[in-house]
Amino acid sequence: MLGLLSTSSEAVPIDILRAAVPVGIGLASAAFLTMKMVSQTVDKSIPTVALRSGDSTHDAEFKDDPDLFLLRCEEQYGPVFNLYILNQNLTVISGPMVREVFMNEDFSFGDAIHDVTGLRSFVTSIIKSNRHPDSPVPHEIIRDAISPNLPLFTPRIVEQLVSFIDNNLGHCDHKLVENPLLIFQDMIASAMATVFMGSEVAKNRKVIDTFIQCTYDFGKVLGKDSRKSFWHSFQSKATYGNGVINPLHKHVQVLVEAATPVILERRKQEAEAAEKGIEYERPLDILQKLLDNFDKYNFVDLEDVCGHLLILVLASVHTTSDTSTNILYYLAAFPEHMDTLLQEQHRVLDDISQEREEQRQSKLQSGEVQSLKDFEGTDLDPKNDHDLSAAAVKRMIHVDSFVREIFRYRSERLQLPHRARKNVVLSNGMTIHKGRTAIINLRSVHYNNELQGENPAEFRPWRFVGKAKSATKVSADFLAFGMGRHACPGRFLAIQELKTVSVLVVSKYSKLEIQDPSKTKKALLTRIGDPVPTGIIFTSRQQESKTV
Ligand code: HEM
C-alpha cells in the first residue's frame, strides 16, 4: 500500500507544491538535501555506481532503461550498491539479500515513507488511540476480522461488483470508456464499504464518495512519485501533524454520521433479542467487529473507531481499484487468454454444481432430507449452484496465476524503501548505517529466470499454474505485498477481489481492446497511481456466462 509510490521519472514532485513554493525554497531544499547526503554516515565498502558522463544523478540513466541499468549495476557492483536517485542517496539491495531487509525489524518501511512524504502525521492525526508508529492494530484487525471471514464476505462483494458493472458499463457494443478507473474505483469502494461498514452503510452515496475522495487526499500527501522533497514532507508534517486542517477529519465525520443510526438500530435489535431470550445475530462487518472489541483495541469513541476504519480504506481502496483497472488492460493486450479463463470458470462452477447435486442425492438417499424442495433456503439450495463463492474462486488456479503474473510483470523496479533505525550489518559484512534508506531492487527478484522460470521479460499468465505459488503467497521471489512480519495483511481480501473482478469481466465481455494500441506497453507498465494514457473498448458477450 503505502510504498507503492510511483518512481515514474516523468512525474514531478507534487505539482501543487510546485505552484505554491517559490524557487528560493526549491534551492534551499536542494541545499538541505546535499547537506543530508554529505552528513550521512555511509559504509565505504558499499560501492557507489559511477555516474554516466554528463549526469549529476542516476535518474536519467535509470529512466532510459531501468532493467538494463540495474542489471549493469548488479553485474559490475554486486547485490548492494548506492545510487543518487529520486533525490536521495539510496542503498539498493538485490537478489537473495532482499530477505535481510524484510526480516529485520531494525528496517522500517513506515519510517522511510514518512521521511519522504510526512504521511504518518497525516494518518495518525485521525485516530485517538494506537498512535504509536509500530502499532499492530490495523494488522490485527485485518488478520482477525477480515481474512478469516472472506468466505462469508464474498457473496456480498460479488453482489456489489456485479451491480456496479451492470449499472455503469452494462451491455456494451464496442463502447469506449476513456478512464475505466472511475468506474472501477466506485465498484471497489462499494465492495470495501460492505465489508468494512455493512450493507446498510454501503448504500449511502456519501460514504462511497468519502472512500474515494479520501484516497485522493491521501494521494496528494503521498505525492506523484517517491522522490524525496524536504518541503513536501516538511509541509505534510507541519500541516497535518496538529490535525486541524487535515481533510481526513471531514471523512471521519461522514463515517460517524452514517454509522450512528445503524449502530443505534443494531443496539435496539440486540436489546429486543435479549428481552425475548433469543440470540442476537451479530451483523458481519468490520464496524461491528471493532465495536465488539472496543476495549481490546483500546478505542476511545466512535470517531476513533471510524478513524481506524478510514486507515483501512486508505490502505485498500486505491491499491485494489488501481490493480483491477490494470487487469482490464492485460485482458485487452492478451485477448488470446480470455478463453482459457472463461473455460476454467465454467469447469470449476460445473464441478461444484455436480458435487452439490451429489451431496443432495446422498442426503435424500439416507433419508436425512425428504424432498428436493427441502433444500430451498439452505446451504445446498440448487439456485446457488453456480454462485461465484470463495471456494469457487479459490479453485480457479489460472485466474490466480494470471493475477500474480500481472503483479510480477508490472513491478516497479526500485520499490519498498526501508529506513535503518540502527546500524544493520548485512550477511556480506556491509553496514547500512542508522538513518540510511535501503531500497529493494525488484528487477533482480521479479525478472530473474532462476526465480521466475523461462523468459521473465515475457508476460506468461500461466507461469505459476501447478506450482505452489499462489498470488497471496509472499516470499523472497514475490514481493508485491512485501514480506515478513509486515507483509500486507490485506492481500487475501485484495486478491479475492481482483480474481473476482477478472472472472466477472471475462464472463460478461467477449472482447476488450486498448483504445490506442500504440500505448499498450505504457498502459501495462503504468505504476500504481499514475494515469493510464489510453482507454478501453468493451464488447459484451452475446450470451453471458452462467457465472453471473
Ligand atoms: C493491490 C492491493 C494491495 C497491494 C499491492 C498492497 C501492498 C502492500 C505493501 C507492499 C505493503 C508493505 C509490506 C511490507 O512492509 O513489507 C502493504 C502493507 C499494508 N497493507 Fe497492503 N496492499 C494492498 C491491499 C491492501 C488491502 C486491501 C488492505 C486492507 C484491507 C491493506 C492493508 C495493509 C496494511 C494495514 C499494511 C501495513 C502492514 C504492517 O505494517 O504491518 N492492503 N501493502
TrEMBL record:
Cross-referenced Gene3D superfamilies: Cytochrome P450
Cofactor(s) demanded: heme
Biased composition annotated in UniProt, kind: Basic and acidic residues: 371-381
Entry's Gene Ontology molecular function annotations: heme binding; iron ion binding; monooxygenase activity; oxidoreductase activity, acting on paired donors, with incorporation or reduction of molecular oxygen
Binding positions for heme per the UniProt entry: 488
Region of interest (Disordered), residue spans: 353-381
Matches recorded under InterPro entries: Cyt_P450 (IPR001128), Cyt_P450_CS (IPR017972), Cyt_P450_E_grp-IV (IPR002403), Cyt_P450_sf (IPR036396)
UniProtKB keywords: Heme, Iron, Metal-binding, Monooxygenase, Oxidoreductase
Family, per entry: Belongs to the cytochrome P450 family.
Protein name per UniProt: Cytochrome P450
Source organism: Mortierella alpina
Lineage: Eukaryota, Fungi, Fungi incertae sedis, Mucoromycota, Mortierellomycotina
